[in-house]
């Protein structure tokens, strides 16, 4: 008897190019692991009512790792049937959920705008199921990567958590800088594990408060453009917070912070 997919049907909202910021970050930071893998398999979990994000993920990852294969996984059978005409070499679609019904162990699982529609107390169990499916760490590899987060409808603002087989590693904030009034605007796109923790006394609230202050202090740099102001603010906030990336990523409108610094208390 077939295993019942784990999870519930989400709204399925999707748009072309919505996940470009996340995809670029994955290609840049996880591309080496994909290139080293004997079978570089990426899963687009919960791709939604149309297959655009899976199609785009294949194209973007192959710029970094040309042998990458992508499997789009959806819990709604009708969405899988609708996606099948888009299959091609290196891209297939399968019915399933958090059990990730693919052979082998994925080098990457991307779950964008999926857990947003779950309760906060369901997040850890979902993370654990997905991490258990990742390629394990070895002496030459950190193992597979789970990237789980939320973005707005057209991908201008995005926040995601990156997790390895061992657990959460980092939180990345990414934005189209021209759309930003202040860094805390990104709070509305915090993933489910953090969005209800943006309150006084929680680390993510303190980080966004400090980031806003650094942004305000960097206001004179706005005359050189939003990118220069952002980079100056990130550099300032990195004196007190464990920022894990550098200027190359900051120029893209990103900043990545160690998970343990932002993790919910309790």
Give an overview of the whole structure.
The chain has two domains: 19-175, Vaccinia Virus protein VP39 (Rossmann fold, 3-Layer(aba) Sandwich); 177-259, no CATH class. Helices cover 32% and strands 19% of the residues. It has helices spanning 20-36, 52-64, 77-83, 123-131, 192-195, 203-217, 226-237, 247-250, 259-262, and strands at residues 41-45, 69-74, 91-95, 108-112, 145-151, 157-164, 167-175, 254-258. It has an eight-stranded mixed sheet with strand order 3-2-1-4-5-6-7-8, sandwiched between helices. A hairpin with a 5-residue loop joins strand 5 and strand 6. The termini are far apart. GO terms for molecular function: methyltransferase activity. Keywords: Methyltransferase, Transferase. This is Class I SAM-dependent methyltransferase.
């Amino acid at each position: 008897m077939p295993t019942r997919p784990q999870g519930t049907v989400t709204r399925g909202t999707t748009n072309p190019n919505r996940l470009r910021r996340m995809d670029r970050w994955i290609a840049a930071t996880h591309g080496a692991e994909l290139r080293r893998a004997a079978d570089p398999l990426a899963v687009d979990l919960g791709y939604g009512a149309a297959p655009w994000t899976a199609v785009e993920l294949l194209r973007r990852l192959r710029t970094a790792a040309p042998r990458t294969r992508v499997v789009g996984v959806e819990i709604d059978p009708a969405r899988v049937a609708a996606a099948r005409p888009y299959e091609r070499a290196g891209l297939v679609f399968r019915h399933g959920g958090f059990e990730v019904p693919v052979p082998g162990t994925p080098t990457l699982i991307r779950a964008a705008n999926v857990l947003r529609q779950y309760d906060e107390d369901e997040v850890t169990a979902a993370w654990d199921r997905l991490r258990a499916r990742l390629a394990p760490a070895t002496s030459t590899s950190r193992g597979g990567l789970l990237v789980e987060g939320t973005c707005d409808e057209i991908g201008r603002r995005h926040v995601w958590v990156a997790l390895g087989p061992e657990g959460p590693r980092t939180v990345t904030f990414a934005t189209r800088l021209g759309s930003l009034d202040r860094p805390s605007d990104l709070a509305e796109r915090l993933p489910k594990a953090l969005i209800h923790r943006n309150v006084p006394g929680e680390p993510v609230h303190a980080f966004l408060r400090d980031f806003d202050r650094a942004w305000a202090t960097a206001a004179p740099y706005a005359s050189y453009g939003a990118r220069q102001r952002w980079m100056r603010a990130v550099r300032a906030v990195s004196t007190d917070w464990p920022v894990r990336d550098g200027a190359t990523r900051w120029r893209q409108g990103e900043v990545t912070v160690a998970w343990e610094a932002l993790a919910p208390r309790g």
